[in-house]
Structures are given as C-alpha cells and as structure tokens.
Amino acid sequence: MDIVCLDLEGVLVPEIWIAFSEASGIPELKRTTRDEPDYNKLMNWRLGILREHGLGLREIQETIAKIDPLPGAVEFLDELRSLTQVIVISDTFTQFATPLMKKLGWPTLFCNTLEVAEDGMISGFRMRIQNSKLSTVKALQSIGFHTIAAGDSYNDLDMILASKAGFLFRSTEKIKADHPELPAFETFDELMNGIRRVLD
Who's near 18: CB < 8 A, 6+ residues apart? Predict the structure, then answer.
C-alpha cells in the first residue's frame, strides 16, 4: 500500500516565517530550512530574535490568520486524497499549523509543539521525535507502507531519499543542483502526474 508524505510550508502553504518577517519588518526571520539545514539551530536563532523584539505567539498567529494555501493546493490535496492515503509531515508547530489545516480541509498532520510562557512569549519547542520526517517515513515503511515523498527544503531530503519515490517541489536551485537524481517540479499538475506514475 502506498502513502504520500508531503511537506507543508513551501509545498501547500507559504512559508510562515517569511510571512511573519514581512509583517514584522524583521528581515532576519526570512531565513528558513531552505537556507539552514540544522533545524534546531534555526529555531533557537528565531526564538532569540523574537525575544529581542518582544514578540510572542499572538503576533505570529495574527500573521498566520491572513495566510491562505498556495493557489491550487486545496484542489491538489483533495484529488490526491481521492487516490491514496496522505500525511503532511512538517517541522512546524501545532499552534502555527491548525488554522492552515482548516483551510486545507483538515489533512492528517504530524508536527511539533511550542512551549509558551504565561505572558505569551515562546520559551522553547518540543520536537515530536528526532529526525521527524525520516523517522516517520521509516515507521510507515515498517508497518507495510510504500512511501512517496515531496518537499522543498534541506529538512525534506532524508524522507524523499528514503522513499520508494521522491520529488522536489518548488525547491531552490542549490538543492536541485545537489540532487540531480530527484525529479524537480514547479506546478501541482506536474507533481500530481509524477505521483500518479508511481501509483500506477
């Protein structure tokens, strides 16, 4: 049995931190997993910037409330779920992702959790499991699933490379150049056709 594992940000919805960077006027927060492979390092750096500017969860959630799925994402996800099982595997956090899941029609989401102080400041974060995307794909494979994975960033590469089939979607030129063996798509139609070929 096949199961498709999709990244969230950059694949189905815009990058949350880029949107918040623009809303807050803090250009440093534009840095994402497309730029920094070490997620823990990236998140701790982000939290330091938030503390420095006195910004907490509420301010980020106000920005997230204005984010809509990428054009065509809902239709793509609906069609894909009519063909096979789908899980969205993300390094984001429940407190960020829930409003976006509603707009996407409540797909299954595996992600992480923020630690939030009483004053609303983000004090830390709890990862669901180490190497969450690769660990999830391997766990699914251990119970009889053949995984098909797609993502855009460094933190997606392990799950893409470990899967029966994997695709880069709207990725960077650097990542595409480093992994010429991976099909790289720019539109949902291309990605759907790539997945359909594997399912067939």
Answer: 29, 30, 32
Who wins on pLDDT, 34 or 91? 91
Has this prediction a pTM greater than 0.70?
Answer: yes
Q: Where are the alpha helices (DSSP H) in the chain?
A: 16-24, 39-53, 57-64, 73-83, 94-103, 132-142, 157-161, 173-178, 188-199
CA distance 154 to 145: 24
Hey, which residues does 86 pair with through a beta bridge? 4
CA–centroid distance for 104 within its chain: 13
Dihedral, CA atoms, 155, 89, 162, 37, nearest 10 degrees?
0
Q: Are 153 and 14 in contact (CB under 8 A)?
A: no
Q: What CA–CA distance (Å, rounded) separates 196 from 101?
A: 24
Share of the chain above pLDDT 70, in %: 100
Q: Name the residues annotated as catalytic.
A: 7, 9
Question: How does DSSP classify residue 56?
Answer: -
Domains assigned to the chain? 2-13+68-199 (3.40.50.1000), 17-64 (3.90.1470.10)
Beta bridge partners of 125: 114
